[in-house]
Amino acid sequence: MQSPSRPTALITGGAAGIGASFARALARDGYRLVLVDRNGEGLQRFAGSFDADTEVVTADLTVEGDLARVEQRCREGVDLLVNNAGFGHPTEFLSTSAVAELAMSKLHMDVVLRLTLAALPGMIERGRGGIINLGSVLGFFPSSTYSASKAWVINFSQSAFTKARPSGVTVTVLCPGFTRTEFHDSAGMNMTKIPGFLWLEADALVKAALSDWRQGKAVSIPGWRNKTIAALSRLLPMRLILRIHAGTGKHSLAVRERTPVTRP
Ligand SMILES: NC(=O)c1ccc[n+]([C@@H]2O[C@H](COP(=O)([O-])OP(=O)(O)OC[C@H]3O[C@@H](n4cnc5c(N)ncnc54)[C@H](OP(=O)(O)O)[C@@H]3O)[C@@H](O)[C@H]2O)c1
Asked: How far is the CA of 53 from the centre of ligand 1 (A)?
């Protein structure tokens, strides 16, 4: 339940990577945390690793009953919702199973929509709080089903921003580029060809994102490199973007000689 003096932040995928960085940063800022993740053991271990008032919710958000529990928790009142849980596929969509594609679409789109619908009306009524949705700079480019789902997140978040803003509530879409987390390893992607200067640390990303959210920005693109990449999506002709993608996509995200973590 919400405390009038201490704001509550609910973070999906809150046990690892960018979600864990949000958790640590928001705990330092005095938030109570509701951490949602599907790996109960990892979640408990992470929640016990730092000093914070934390509620843990083990839930696979692609499973209807689990999602309904988290929706209910959002309706009970949260001040900041971070729709962060997500994953990518190591293969192009033509080589990925429909089941795995639909699980990703559900997590990136349906879950973001339903948790927003559960949390936002209460925030607007109270006239405070907000939502940070995880997009990606890839969402500005036609690159894959992953980028298509993140394009949806960017578009939807901007429309939610315009509805919420008059009440003082900010919906921000955070669009990271390459960020050092377990994301690529979990998906079995080989990232060795991506130059070091393009990577951001998750803690630095989250610091910039929270600053942008507090300033009431609709879109947060941390780092000048990511800002440049996003700007190119508006400046370059689509024909050239498609040719560049055809040339680079198959090299940069080539599947490693390893068995990726099993995804649905
Ligand atoms: N890292 C990047 O370069 C990058 C760039 C752009 C955007 N993003 C976005 O940033 C967000 C966070 O990514 P990350 O890099 O922090 O990845 P990560 O290190 O893999 O962390 C993602 C977390 O979400 C959890 N999760 C995945 N599926 C879930 C489900 N169905 N229900 C509940 N929890 C689930 C994961 O649990 P498991 O460990 O059990 O899978 C993991 O704890 C994602 O939306 C991603 O698309 C990341």
From this structure: 23
| Neighbour tally for 174: CB within 10 Å | 29
Q: Residues for the chain: how many in total?
A: 264
31 in catalytic set: no
- Is the whole-model pTM more than 0.85? yes
Residue ranges of alpha helices (H) inside 59-198 are 64-75, 98-105, 111-126, 145-164, 183-187
- What is the rounded distance in angstroms from the CA atom of residue 127 to the CA atom of residue 153? 23
| CA–CA dist 114, 237 (Å, integer) | 35
Q: Which two three-digit tokens encode residue 140?
A: 């500005």
Instruction: Catalytic residue, from 46, 140, 141, 146: name it.
Output: 146
pLDDT, mean of each 10-residue run, the chain (264 residues) = 76 97 97 96 94 95 98 97 95 92 97 98 97 97 94 98 98 96 85 87 97 98 95 92 75 38 44
* Amino acid symbol at 217: K
Q: What's the CATH superfamily of 8-252?
A: NAD(P)-binding Rossmann-like Domain (3.40.50.720)
d(CA 148, CA 230): 15
Atom nearest to 83 CA in ligand 1: 45
Q: Which residues pair with 132 in a beta bridge?
A: 82, 172
